[in-house]
Design goal:
154 residues, rod-shaped
Length: 154
């Protein structure tokens, strides 16, 4: 009976020891499970961080593309404005040249008209001189005729 009691006590002690170890086993399992969960969370967080970085890089690239498109549109607008300004300047210069040419041509035409008028006046004067000369010659001839008639009469 003593041996049975001792054996019982040993088994009971072993049972208690196992029961006391069991929570350790459960705690160890829980710790391992916690570590596994923590590792999984770290992995998930790292994946999420990588995804966020990729999203950020995509947004940055998209932003760069958008900026490049806007820059291109601005450059096109600037080039068009410069071309329009150049066309306006050329048109203004052409208009100015045409105006100057018209003024010059008008002045030359006026000068030509004045020269024509002077030539007409000169021709008129020459014509009058010819008429006067002819009249003078006629009168001179008549005078000579009269003088010769007077001399021929006794």
């Amino acid at each position: 009976e003593k041996q049975l009691q001792t054996r019982y006590d040993q088994l009971h002690a072993k049972e208690s020891l196992l029961k006391s170890k069991m929570p350790l086993v459960n705690v160890t399992a829980l710790i391992k499970e916690g570590e596994a969960k923590a590792k999984q969370e770290v992995t998930d967080l790292q994946a999420e961080e990588a995804k966020l970085k990729q999203d950020e890089a995509n947004q940055l690239q998209s932003g760069k593309s958008e900026i490049a498109s806007e820059e291109e549109a601005l450059l096109e607008a600037i080039n068009k404005a410069l071309e329009d300004e150049e066309r306006r300047e050329v048109a203004f210069e052409q208009s100015d040249l045409e105006e100057t040419l018209n003024e010059t041509l008008t002045e030359e035409l006026q000068q030509m008209d004045a020269e024509k008028e002077a030539i007409r006046e000169y021709e008129t004067e020459v014509q009058k001189e010819k008429q006067l000369q002819t009249r003078y010659d006629q009168l001179h001839a008549k005078e000579s005729l009269l003088k010769s008639k007077m001399q021929s009469q006794p």
